[in-house]
Amino acid sequence: MAALTSAVVLVGILCVLDLLLTIGVIKKLREYGPAGPARAPGRGMTPLRPGEELPPFTAVSVDGALVSRSLLPDEALIAFLSPNCEPCRAKLPELVAYAAAEPGGRDRTLAIVVGEPEECERFVRELSSVARVVVEPRGGPVCAALRVDAFPATLRVRSDRDRTVVTGHMVDLAREASPR
Prior knowledge:
The chain is α/β, with parallel strands linked by helices. It has helices at residues 2-32, 86-101, 121-127, 141-145, 173-177, and strands at residues 58-60, 66-68, 76-81, 109-114, 132-136, 153-160, 163-168. Helices cover 36% and strands 21% of the residues. A 5-stranded mixed beta sheet has the order 5-4-3-6-7. A two-stranded antiparallel ribbon has the order 1-2.
């Protein structure tokens, strides 16, 4: 009987240790999230996470229109690209196709092209007909406000009562550009 009691106590202790280890793993997974460590990549900005409120920002698009958080329509996509980044050059056709398929037209996609104006010309030319385009230098006001320092980056936002919240930061443009 003593051996059975010892075995039950031992199994109980192992179960508690397993539970504590599982809780620790879950905490670490939440910290790292689907995009990696909360402070990576880039220079240490913490990317906006789903559920966070979109910070206020204002900018002027290349066609002279004012863009801001309050002017974004529901379910808008904000894409950050840099012509100096190879993955951004590869994503450009997907983003153009995605934005062209958006039911709300070019107002539903905001493209922030980061770089010197002359190096951004191709991106601006290809995106202007399907999205609002803002060109700014690295670390510019929109990137700083939305805590983006690595490219390409995307944010899906939606209106939630009086707030605009991030609903996703890893948008699969190829998948979402297909049937709507």
